[in-house]
Amino acid sequence: MFRGCSNSEALYSPEDTEGVEKLMHMFVGKLVEAGFAVTLDNKTGKHDCMCRPFGTGFGVTMVGILTGSGASWHGYPEHRYGRTIEIDFNLCYLPGRSDHMEALRGVRTVFKDWLKPKKIHVYQSERRYLYAV
Fold first, then answer.
1. Rounded distance, CA 109 to CA 54, Å?
2. CB within 10 Å: which end of the chain, N or C, has fewer?
3. Architecture (CATH level 2) of domain 2-120
4. CA of 50: how far to CAs of 10, 36, 40, 65, 66, in Å?
5. What is the Cα–Cα distance from 2 to 40, expressed in whole angstroms?
6. Is the pTM of this model over 0.70?
7. Can you give the pLDDT at residue 9?
8. Mean pLDDT, to the nearest integer, of 4-23?
9. Which DSSP string do the residues of 46-83 spell out, in sequence order?
10. Own/partner pairs for 28-32, CB < 8 Å, 24+ apart?
């Protein structure tokens, strides 16, 4: 969670298709810069990302489909901190196939440099491994 973000692009609710595309492009670009692979839509050739703005000043939610995983972005105004961005990852760990730790380390640096938050809170749940049944 990035609280008190000073980058004005970090939280706004796009009111048109062009604004939505711009925000999704920035989010996907930062995920890739951190080291994640964002999947491509077979029909459009664009990255698999969806954005839902909630009106001017009320924030935005985005979801990006990562290879074997997913990332979500929730940006909203918070009375106590100002602009708050939550980036959540649901990561699949397949034995011998994927380890996201390097990209997760990159997330903190890449998004911190971009969002310029006053505070960062990191929450991590227990790692779970998936097995085919």
1. 28
2. C
3. 4-Layer Sandwich (3.60)
4. 16, 17, 12, 9, 12
5. 27
6. yes
7. 63
8. 72
9. SB-EEEEE-STTT-EEEEEEETTEEEEEEEEEETTTEE
10. 28/64, 30/110, 30/111, 30/114, 31/64, 31/66, 31/71, 31/107
- Structure confidence by residue, pLDDT tens digits, 58-108: 788 899 998 878 899 888 877 777 788 888 888 776 555 566 777 888 888
Residue 117 CA to residue 71 CA, distance in Å, equals 19
Rounded to 5 degrees, φ, ψ at 78 are -125, 125
Q: What percent of the chain has pLDDT over 70?
A: 82
* Cβ-Cβ contacts under 8 Å for 41 (sequence gap 6 or more): 47, 48
Spell out the domain ranges in the chain: 2-120
CA dihedral 121, 23, 34, 67 (to 10 degrees): 110
